[in-house]
Specification:
It contains 33 helices and 36 strands. By secondary structure, the protein is an alpha+beta fold. The strands form eight sheets. The protein has a seven-stranded mixed β-sheet, with helices on both faces. The chain has a six-stranded antiparallel β-sheet with strand order 16-15-17-23-18-21. A six-stranded antiparallel β-sheet has the order 26-31-30-29-28-27. Helix 27 links the parallel strand 32 and strand 33.
Amino acid sequence: MEAIGKDDLKKPLLQDDDAVAVNVVQLSDSRNKKIRTLLFKVSGITCASCSNSIESALGKLKGIESATVSPLQGQAVVKYVPELISAKKIKEAIEDTGFLVDEFPEQDIAICRIRIKGMACTNCSESVERALSMTDGVKKAVVGLSLEEAKVHFDPNVTSTSQIIEAVEDAGFGADIISSGSDLNKVHFKLEGINSPDNFTAIQCYLDALEGVNTVEINQQEHRVTISYEPDIIGPRTLMQCIQESAHESSTYQVSLFIPPRQREIEKEHEIHTYRNLFLWSCLFSAPVFVFSMVLPMLPPYGNWLEYKVFNMLTVGILLKWILCTPVQFVVGRRFYVGSYHALRRISANMDVLIALGTNAAYFYSVYIMIKALTSNSFEGQDFFETSPMLISFILLGKYLEVLAKGKTSDALAKLTELAPETAYLLTLDGAGNIISETEISSQLIQKNDVLKIVPGAKVPVDGVVINGHSYVNESMITGEARPVSKMPGDKVIGGTVNENGCVLIKATHIGSETALSQIVQLVEAAQLARAPVQKLADQISRYFVPTVVLTAVVTWLGWFIPGELGVYPSSWIPKGMNVFELALQFGISVLVVACPCALGLATPTAIMVATGKGASQGVLIKGGNALEKAHKVKLVVFDKTGTLTVGKPTVVSAVLFSNICMKDFCDVTISAEANSEHPIAKAVVDHAKKLRLKHGAENEYHPEIEDFEVHIGAGVSGKVGGRKILVGNRRLMHAFNIPVSSEVDNYISEHEHLARTCVLVAVEEKIAGAFAVTDPVKPDAARVVSFLHSMDITSVMVTGDNWATARAIANEVGIQMVFAETDPLGKADKVKELQLKGTPVAMVGDGINDSPALVAADVGMAIGAGTDVAIEAADVVLIKSNLEDVVTALDLSRKTMSRIRLNYVWALGYNVLGMPVAAGVLFPFTGIRLPPWLAGACMAASSISVVCSSLLLQSYKKPLHPRVN
């Protein structure tokens, strides 16, 4: 479908459709059914007859919409209705025709993201992951504790998002769908003027019939419609117009853009308010209990009234404490019971189990004391009613502070998502390019190829290309580049960046999920969800931690109770008003509470969340905790030369003839040979040759076509031009074809190679006709980066396909000692593997397709952002701007993050290692110091808060090496 034309741009956004007739589209059966596409390989196809046989066999099957088989590529593309036929049946049908099916996807894989509610520790996230993995059709599930999300890969033919959510809820956690694969480009509209359900049906049918519309969801109660669409085919304004066109003659639909509230922010606010309210309610009851138990008894005669007996030995104080404690235990503390039930039901244990055990032990023992006092006229015993409400209050305070702090860990990501402006100025142009009208619209209504005006100080709404005007754009929020970048017609602009001064007109090229900003956000979200290998330690500890703590608590209780009953320790150790059982019980409860594993589970993911978000805001995209962890171990960095250490825009500085061929003819054969090459040096040679050709009297741009064109990787190209054998490349290519290199040519090559220039030789009919000397300037900060890496105890290496002399000259200029030259793409990967065999973790920095094998082979692949999509896809770290300083930033940030994670483990385990012996009463015999359960609860809460706050300190991270401002 072609882009929206000028006539469409002239139409107002909301038209008066009073005169539009009813137009309900009758859909075919296939339109009502979801159609899927399969792409797979078929071996054994030798000709068009073979492909026709397969297409004919598939065409007879019910449910096959179309089948296309390519005999050249050996590929088949089949569109089918999964409700009528399965992928397995399609495979069997092809094999029945006598062909073998290779690389066949056994199932479609869809991806959805789910918000998980109620996770408290690593045990919880593991339980959710286990429940999801056991669900039929789920291929892979990753659960992020700090992000409170799950990313699920599943087969939509076997299961659905509703069944996945049900599996999470069965495990005892709340779940809501955040997005699915079809949510990448969605628009929401509010509808007015609809009088009956039939109107909704008409709208649904009309939209379903449109090309480019994937799904249509209508909420009749709230009069809303949500449409998933293909931005290359259709746009939101066109959809608005189509909804209006579906109205009856007697009615008009008013359609307006609806922006749904951000669910994550709403849920985070709700969670904060919930914990705050629970804490306040708990304090309302706990404060009087604390006063009755700890304060008034120490202030006679003010506390004497608490000792008045209600019946037998039951006092007013015990009765009041029971009345105040019970709501906290069973109403405010209900969440701990629910969490414990679900944990035990899935044969697991978490923080809720520890808290429920501790508070119940204190509460029900106190109830036992109260009943004994009620039924006896001589019984005396000490109750623990203050332990339960105070413990719950401190834990709720800790959770409240923790969710406040955790909300800050995703601040960097939130700032990225808020960069795009809410509105934009849409221009309508005439045939001559003159502006007819200007309309302010929501940025969500922008369509591809729209012409937008960006005024000084305004944000660029989407990715696009400048078609008119000149300005400077501040891209620091996306790329980390401090200096404003000049933008002229033909230059690309990024959505979310700020136009500094001049007014420019841009054409929208990427919208919605296709924009650089959206892709950065998606990449960072995926990175924050990924689990780092260092977290495995915490996961393993947490798995056995709670049972070990419960066992330790029981041993502690018995260790104090049995010796006390046997008189092993003196009765003077027992505090006044207590007995041996009560003292032992307090020690046991304190051990249960102080050893909660929450902080341990938060140590890694919170640090990774902050670090990946901070890195993204500084122009360094780190693809997950695995890349972050591997990067901190790197001791050797391998740099590609062209486009990485050098600017990547070669220019010809010299052209010389070594035979009697005329310059015009020389340029013609060079252009013919190099025009088909994508190499930057080839493009520079072609550009220079065209200028030389015109300078030497050529009247037109015609040059003869090349025949038998062949690329010799890492050497050059060859072919026939006008019947003559032509070779264009380096010295290695000449040697491969036994072309003699005279001393004159050799001197020319040596002279320029020592100046760090690359020589491109041109041979005609097995004789060198001439040469071009090409230079690619070294990036200004390359030497500074190599020097700084050396100060970080990191060795720099250069690998290039260029010749040795040029490679050594560049290496000397930037300060690199180890060089590998004349290396092809696979050779680069082999060199990386060779360096890894020495036991050194290796990072590879590159920018081109030819660097992809090496990027994959390296422990950490770093792609220059201005490089190719293939290189960026293969890399672990993407440096959005082509600044080499960001190599240092990525490595330094990974080191700082891993250091912070280790510190977090110290905080998390430190409370347990120091707190558990104190809680168990190790110091009590010598110093009289003991840790009451309520104080143990405060320590437990403090450990989680300490870990999150420790991670938040990464927000203050600054680049160790800043770009030089000229």
